[in-house]
Design goal:
The complex is a heterodimer of chains A (427) and B (325).
Chain A lengths: L3 E9 L8 E8 L2 E5 L10 E4 L4 E4 L1 E3 L15 H10 L2 E6 L10 H14 L3 E7 L12 H6 L4 E3 L8 H13 L4 E3 L4 H4 L4 E2 L2 H6 L3 E2 L2 H17 L3 E3 L5 H12 L4 E6 L26 H13 L4 E3 L27 H10 L5 H8 L1 H6 L15 E11 L18 E11 L2 E5 L2
Helix pairs in contact in A: 4-7, 7-8, 8-9, 10-11
Chain B lengths: L1 H6 L17 H19 L12 E6 L5 H12 L3 E6 L11 H10 L4 E6 L4 H8 L5 E7 L5 H15 L6 E5 L6 H12 L4 E5 L9 H5 L2 E3 L2 H4 L5 E4 L15 H8 L3 H4 L7 E3 L12 H4 L6 H20 L9
Parallel strand pairs in B: 1-2, 1-3, 3-4, 5-6, 5-8, 6-7, 8-9
The chains are: A alpha/beta (427), B alpha/beta (325).
Chain lengths: 427, 325
């Protein structure tokens, strides 16, 4: 990494600092070497005039399915990290439900190597909580941790019994490794494909009740308390879950939560007309749930916003609604959807940036998400005044499955740096 | 919403027939009026009109059906259309062909209209949103969503017996949760302006937000629910739902929700009893009621052909069938 860069006159917005300030940042060998005056002997091979633009830490996404290995028809490490770079995302954290499952250091190592060769963002893995995600036998979590897994999770698959679950939590706690949980009671979910509410009732779509999430949250909270594990809830969707988490946090139980950006903007109403791009898991819920999630974001119960990125090939969404695969390709809309919350006066810019950077860094126990001298030069420049229209056909992700086609956004990523290297520049 | 745009052309004429939702009262009445004219044809010695001569209608049944498929076939033949019956469960899909590929292949054979039954809610909307211009989709039942031709033949039956919809109190009894027939009936009855629609079933068989999402009054007590109603529609209870976590047994279901002669006394004196068929005698209703003087169950089947003739011809040729109001 011989290139050196100076970003000039940027409005530096670091969530760990008190106030923003206009300054210059100097990058060399993949690191931030100076903020402010140019260091002695530094000569920039590249200078970017960032006057009027905001410089923030690169975004850390807690939930990105890259689809590699195993489902390359939906996406690859190259295609999806390129989409990440465009979205200002410099770290993606992928769940273990790849094929093969990330349940051994060998698979984690395979992904790490492929990413090292080709990725436009830092790729971190979550290891499996149980072997093959089958919910029966624990994985070698100590080894997974040594091979770089930042957490363990059973993704969306059930753990066979609560006995196995608490043992898995205790074992994870032994090694100080966080457990990521997608709260879902599979029996209560039944064959649900939309929120069990007015729209699904009218359309005759099998419903996923709120209890499919809240029963799982309640169980996990009890087990978290008993096991002492750090449990992080991913992509919560119900207002009741926000309440329960709030109570647990007040009691001092070590639980955190994130929400997917689309859950803060869409509701069950968007499923009307059988729009398969709104077939999601967890499903879009009521306006009251959406508002409670927003409140949770504003008040801090929820400390990160994630993309919940799930790219699909076109065929996966070309079928009758219940037969389509759930999920949206979301890396390229994560930042604009979060900035929209600032426009809507729910949160201020500082909080919005924290939810995408320092918030997820803290959950995943990463030493990043800050702009400081000596840190990796993972940075993102945003033009907050730019108005633009999002177009599904222009997405860089291999999956163009998005419900946000045609949405008008305010604020756009202009440059992304990953380890000091320019990985995206908007023209 | 999109269902409206999909079903109607720019002149508000029927282009596809997917669900009752999004169709206004006038259009439903036009379908009933048009059905009336086809009823007379079925009384003639030559039961055929040339309305759809030269047109090709494909029956795509992804779920088993005898009655509905037969009445659609008879309706199409009486309109002089050529009918293709495709037994999908034994052909394309077992070879891995997608629904969209099936549509494209048959379109390439110049099929003008598809009559489809499918196990997934929204299947007919999906097909309609990808069909070529000039190709019509008729929903013969999709998942738990909609079965609009059944609802229209039920409306026709009610009108033929009762005349006016507005004063009627109608009770629908049984598995509302899983029933596409019930959803379509409820929407049709409310669109046609009946005074009250009630649904009667145990909590396990009623959608969580039935009142808000469907506009019905919910009853869990059969005697209370059928009191003074003018029409009772009994729904078929699927065998696999009769014993398990939804219901304990056929016996208890009949005890609590079965329609008996004794219970029928609670309804209006001239109550009409309906059932979309096939009946489980002794489970949903007593034989004496099914074959009794209030029952119009077999008329429903007869009317089904005329109503489907009306819908096929209106969706195929929106300019020539139906009267402008």
């Amino acid at each position: 990494m011989s290139s050196t860069t100076s970003i000039l006159h940027a409005r530096l917005h670091d969530p760990s600092a008190d106030a923003e300030r206009v300054t210059d940042i100097h990058l060399s060998e993949g690191k931030i070497v100076a903020i402010g005056d140019t260091p002695a002997g530094f000569s920039a091979t590249q200078q970017i005039d960032a006057a009027g633009q905001y410089l923030i830490p690169g975004i850390i996404d807690l939930n990105t399915r890259l689809r590699e290995p195993g489902q390359e028809q939906k996406g690859t490490i190259i295609s999806e990290t390129t989409a990440a770079a465009r979205g200002g995302v410099t770290t993606v954290i992928c769940p273990p439900d790849t094929d093969p499952v990330i349940d051994t250091p060998a698979v984690a190592e395979l992904i790490r190597r492929r990413a090292k060769q080709s990725a436009q963002a830092r790729v971190l893995s979550v290891g499996a909580l149980t072997r093959g995600l089958a919910g029966e036998q624990l994985t070698e979590m100590a080894a997974l941790k040594s091979s770089g897994c930042i957490a363990v999770s059973n993704a969306r698959l059930p753990v066979h019994s609560n006995l196995i679950l608490i043992r898995a939590l205790e074992y994870a706690a032994t090694w100080g490794i966080p457990v990521f949980v997608n709260p879902l009671d599979h029996a209560l979910n039944n064959s649900g494909c939309a929120h069990d509410g007015r729209v699904a009732n009218r359309l005759g779509l099998p419903g996923t009740p709120c209890s499919a999430e809240t029963v799982a949250v309640a169980t996990m909270l009890e087990l978290a308390h008993e096991s002492g594990a750090h449990i992080h809830f991913q992509q919560i969707s119900t207002g009741r879950a926000v309440e329960m988490l709030h109570e647990a946090q007040l009691k001092g139980i070590h639980v955190t939560a994130d929400v997917a950006a689309h859950q803060l903007h869409l509701t069950e109403m968007d499923v009307d007309g059988f729009d398969s791009n709104c077939h999601l898991l967890p499903p879009l819920r009521t306006l009251a749930d959406r508002d409670a999630l927003r409140q949770g974001v504003a008040e801090g119960v929820i400390s990160a916003i994630c993309s919940g990125h799930e790219p699909h090939e076109a065929d996966a969404k070309l079928a009758p609604f219940p037969a389509t695969e759930p999920g949206i390709s979301a890396l390229e809309t994560l930042l604009p959807l979060t900035l929209r919350l600032v426009d809507e006066k729910l949160i201020d810019l500082r909080r919005a940036i924290a939810l995408l950077t320092s918030g997820p860094a803290e959950i995943a126990e990463l030493d990043s998400g800050r702009v400081t001298v000596g840190a990796d030069a993972d940075l993102c420049l945003i033009d907050l005044d730019r108005e633009w229209q999002f177009a599904a056909e222009n997405m860089l992700s291999a999956g163009h499955n998005t419900p946000f086609d045609g949405w008008e956004f305010h604020g756009q990523v202009t440059h992304t740096f990953f380890e000091g290297r320019l990985t995206w520049a908007e023209t | 919403m999109s269902a409206v745009n999909l079903q109607l052309d720019e002149n508000n004429k029927l282009r596809h027939f997917l669900s009752i939702e999004g169709l206004n009262r006038d259009l439903l009445l036009r379908i009933l009026d048009s059905s009336e004219s086809f009823i007379n044809i079925t009384d003639r010695s030559v039961k055929k009109v040339p309305a759809l001569r030269g047109k090709v209608i494909a029956n795509l049944f992804f779920e088993n059906s005898t009655r509905t498929r037969t009445t659609f076939e008879l309706a199409a033949k009486r309109l002089s259309a050529d009918v293709l019956n495709l037994n999908i469960s034994t052909s394309a899909t077992t070879k891995g062909e997608t629904l969209l590929d099936t549509l494209r292949n048959l379109e390439a054979m110049d099929v003008d209209m598809f009559v489809m039954r499918h196990g997934d809610s929204g299947a007919a909307h999906f097909l309609a949103s990808h069909a070529n211009p000039g190709v019509s989709i008729i929903n013969a039942g999709d998942g738990q969503h909609s079965h609009p031709t059944q609802a229209m033949l039920d409306m026709y039956t009610i009108r033929s017996v009762k005349g006016d919809f507005t004063p009627l109190r109608v009770a629908i009894v049984g598995d509302i949760l899983h029933s596409r027939v019930a959803r379509s009936q409820i929407m049709a009855l409310n669109t046609l302006g009946v005074s009250e629609v009630r649904v009667i079933a145990p909590r396990t068989l009623i959608p969580s937000y039935a009142r808000e999402s469907l506009g019905v009054h919910v009853y869990h007590d059969m005697d209370e629910g059928i009191r003074d109603v003018d029409v009772i529609i009994m729904l078929r209870l699927q065998k696999e739902r009769m014993s398990g976590a939804l219901l304990p047994s056929e016996h208890e279901y009949f005890q609590c929700f079965g329609l008996t002669e004794e219970r029928l006394q609670l309804a209006a004196d001239d109550v009409t009893v309906m059932h979309p068929g096939p009946i489980n005698r002794g489970v949903e209703m007593a034989t004496a009621v099914a074959d009794g003087q209030h029952s119009v169950i077999l008329q429903q089947v007869t009317y089904g052909i005329a109503v489907r003739m009306a819908i096929l011809s209106m969706a195929m040729q929106p300019s020539s069938a139906g009267r402008e109001t």
